[in-house]
Specification:
Blueprint (H helix, E strand, L loop, with lengths): L13 E6 L2 E6 L4 E7 L2 E2 L17 E2 L5 E2 L3 E4 L2 E4 L10 E2 L9 E5 L3 E8 L9 E10 L2 E10 L5 E3 L2 E2 L2 E2 L10 E3 L2 E7 L6 E6 L14 E2 L6 E7 L7 E6 L5 E6 L5 E5 L13 E6 L5 H4 L4 E3 L4 E11 L1
Antiparallel strand pairs: 1-2, 2-3, 3-4, 5-15, 6-9, 7-8, 10-11, 11-12, 12-13, 13-27, 14-26, 16-25, 17-20, 17-22, 18-19, 18-21, 21-24, 22-23, 23-27, 24-25
């Protein structure tokens, strides 16, 4: 057939939204925000359309965010074993939706709605449909995810996004972080298994207290935070800025009482600490085992969450 056959990019079907100086590129695999710019300035770490998405950049994480320890949990009295997708630590990482190909439901220049179904499978014998709506306006890019249990039995469920925020020039070490969280979930150093909640003002975890904005420097962060301070509308906001004051903010409502923050440390210098992962979560790491803030979707029931990424001038 020669070389005339058109080939879809590796990250799937591409969608572009534009409004009020913002441009968002969405890839259908994982309903991933592939890039987000404001007047040409990156607000997240982008990846190429014809690239296998690295490090879950911009993906939707469902039906669980973060880790299920050892990939094992018991639900409804039945022990389940998930595939181990984080071999280096031996956990099931970031759910099952991130490699699904989401189909377009409707699209305009400012709004996109896509959907996909998590089919019942070993370790997660549930069918859950996901609808992801992206809306772009002067307030930034708002993502709303709605999940519905399309199966016949109750299903455990959690959700989060996975953007790597970019304040501007430089790297994570150079930027200022404002993180309105009063408690941190401590973890084991090697496998990041949850230990216990601590107040960030305790002396031995005070390095993670970013309630007052300060420079991140060389602090390593890969932790979940909770007890979030919220504004009068119920939103919590993380802000990442440069020394000049420009940057990016991520805000979310009460459906997500947790947020995972990661300084994206990598052994390869070219990609080390080039963005700050900020992941509002409906439940903490290993919620399939702890049950903390875990949504249990009865057949036909729905649950959702939303968040907004906005430029700071």
């Amino acid at each position: 057939m020669g070389n005339s056959v058109s080939r879809r990019p590796l990250s799937g079907t591409q969608f572009v939204l534009e409004a009020n100086g913002y441009t968002a590129s969405i890839a259908s695999i994982g309903a991933s925000i592939r890039s987000l710019q404001y007047h040409g300035r990156n607000l997240i770490v982008p990846f190429d359309a014809d690239q296998v998405r690295p490090f879950f950049r911009g993906a939707i994480l469902a039906p669980w965010p973060n880790r299920v320890v050892d990939g094992r949990y018991t639900f409804g009295g039945i022990e389940q074993q998930l595939s181990i997708t984080e071999p280096s630590r031996g956990h099931a990482l970031h759910g099952l939706a991130s490699w699904l190909d989401f189909a377009v439901v409707r699209q305009t220049t400012r709004r996109l709605v896509v959907e996909a179904t998590i089919e019942a499978q070993p370790g997660y014998p549930h069918r859950v449909t996901l609808e992801v709506a992206f809306a772009l306006d002067a307030g930034g890019l708002r993502t709303t995810v709605t999940a519905m249990n399309a199966g016949s039995i109750a299903a455990p469920f959690g959700i989060a996004p996975h953007p790597y925020l970019v304040a501007g020039d430089g790297r994570v070490n150079d930027w200022t972080l404002e993180l309105p969280a009063r408690r941190i979930l401590t973890v084991t150093p090697e496998r990041l298994i949850p230990l216990r909640l601590r107040d960030v003002n305790e002396s031995d975890v005070a390095e993670f207290d970013f309630r007052a904005p300060r420079t991140i420097n060389d602090t390593f962060i890969d932790h979940a935070f909770t007890s979030l301070d919220r504004d009068d509308e119920g939103n919590a906001t993380v802000r990442v800025t440069t020394s000049a004051g420009s940057g990016v903010a991520l805000a979310w409502a009460g459906e997500c009482p947790w947020v995972q923050v990661h300084t994206a440390d990598q052994p390869e210098p070219s990609i080390d600490r080039i963005g700050l992962a900020v992941e509002p979560m409906t439940c903490p790491p290993d919620a399939f085992n702890s049950g903390v803030n875990l949504n249990v979707l009865q057949p036909g029931d729905s649950a959702g969450a939303s968040w907004t990424i906005q430029a700071i001038d």
